[in-house]
Design brief:
It is built from six helices and four strands; from the N terminus they run αββαααββαα. The chain is of the alpha+beta class and about 180 residues long. It has two domains: about 100 residues, Cytochrome C3 (Alpha-Beta Complex); about 70 residues, Cytochrome C3 (Alpha-Beta Complex). Strands 1-2 form a two-stranded antiparallel sheet. The protein has a two-stranded antiparallel ribbon with strand order 3-4. A hairpin with a 7-residue loop joins strand 3 and strand 4. The longest helix has 22 residues. It is elongated. The site of one heme C has 22 residues, from helix 5.
Amino acid sequence: MTRRWMILTVLLMVALPSVLYGRWIKDKVYLQTDSVGKVEFSHYTHLEMESIGKNCPTCHNDVFHIVTKKNPAFTMAEMEDGKACGFCHNGKKAFNVSGDCTTCHAGDIVYINEDVGNITFPHEAHTGMFGCDECHPDIFKPERGANQVTMEDMESGESCGACHDGSMAFGVAEDCESCHEM
Ligand code: HEC
Ligand code: HEC
Ligand code: HEC
Ligand code: HEC
Ligand code: HEC
Ligand code: HEC
């Protein structure tokens, strides 16, 4: 390559991300965990933020390597120490990794059921009372729709019925409308 081409190529590499990121960069990327499913990260949402701008080096490659397999699987403890998402999500630059679990991990889960009405499982109401590992992966695989059961299964202690037994929490055989939108 001639020197002129080299310079042009470098200039393009610097200029392109800020001009065209919306076209060629993948918005949503997913970080896979062993125990609690995958976590969605949105490039677009972050690049819209004033404190970040369209500035790739804010994260690449010091905080996250662009070649995703070069990133170790970070634990929440490491993030609380300022690694990965915790570089900003420390309660100062952005909401804290040690709170708001469901903002990053999983919000409300809606089971669609036309016959008996949709059921909303509110993660947040539960993560205040239980650790993730009290449900995942033993009672529920952390993947939407991956745990089909009937009410009969629940009454014999599976799924929601592991806790919603009328003593630890309201029972599955009692108040249908606490879960079903009827
Ligand atoms: C706020 C932090 C942040 C900023 C800013 C950022 N990224 Fe990323 N990027 C990430 C994270 C997190 C991942 C996923 C890492 C992983 O999966 O281990 C990622 C992954 C990537 C990947 C790999 C995608 C894949 O699926 O292989 C590319 C390419 C990438 N970013 C390009 C860019 C470019 C170009 C910019 C600037 C326009 C940018 N990123 C800005 C956080 C950021
Ligand atoms: C800012 C976003 C964010 C918040 C807030 C957050 N997490 Fe995470 N969490 C992640 C990401 C991203 C990963 C995956 C990291 C990886 O695989 O490299 C992860 C991984 C995990 C893991 C698997 C790794 C480990 O440490 O065992 C658990 C469990 C977990 N989070 C629980 C929680 C709990 C509980 C909370 C609330 C106290 C929480 N997370 C809050 C982003 C977040
Ligand atoms: C370079 C700093 C930076 C890094 C690194 C970063 N974030 Fe953020 N993030 C922000 C800021 C700033 C906000 C907006 C302020 C707030 O909501 O507290 C935000 C907001 C969010 C939101 C809310 C978005 C919305 O729609 O309101 C989510 C979800 C999120 N981040 C997830 C993540 C995850 C997951 C990671 C790691 C994979 C991560 N962030 C890494 C700076 C960062
Ligand atoms: C009280 C039980 C319970 C607790 C505690 C719980 N979850 Fe879940 N989780 C569920 C249920 C139920 C589903 C839906 C499964 C289905 O659709 O079959 C789910 C689904 C998920 C999914 C898949 C979401 C999707 O869109 O595919 C993820 C990811 C997840 N949970 C992460 C977490 C994390 C991280 C924690 C801890 C911060 C946590 N969960 C705590 C019950 C729980
Ligand atoms: C703790 C929450 C909860 C309560 C209380 C509850 N359900 Fe359900 N129900 C669910 C969930 C979640 C599903 C979806 C399960 C799936 O798709 O895997 C469901 C599914 C169903 C189904 C379809 C599956 C089947 O068994 O045929 C029927 C019918 C049903 N519920 C009826 C009822 C009735 C009647 C009551 C009251 C006696 C009730 N439910 C109380 C959570 C609940
Ligand atoms: C690990 C135990 C556990 C599991 C599993 C569980 N729950 Fe709960 N849930 C509770 C407890 C405890 C409460 C609060 C006590 C009460 O309301 O009786 C609660 C409360 C709720 C509430 C009321 C929330 C509020 O805002 O007041 C709903 C709705 C609910 N659960 C739905 C479900 C559904 C649907 C499932 C299955 C997909 C499920 N839960 C699985 C323990 C659990």
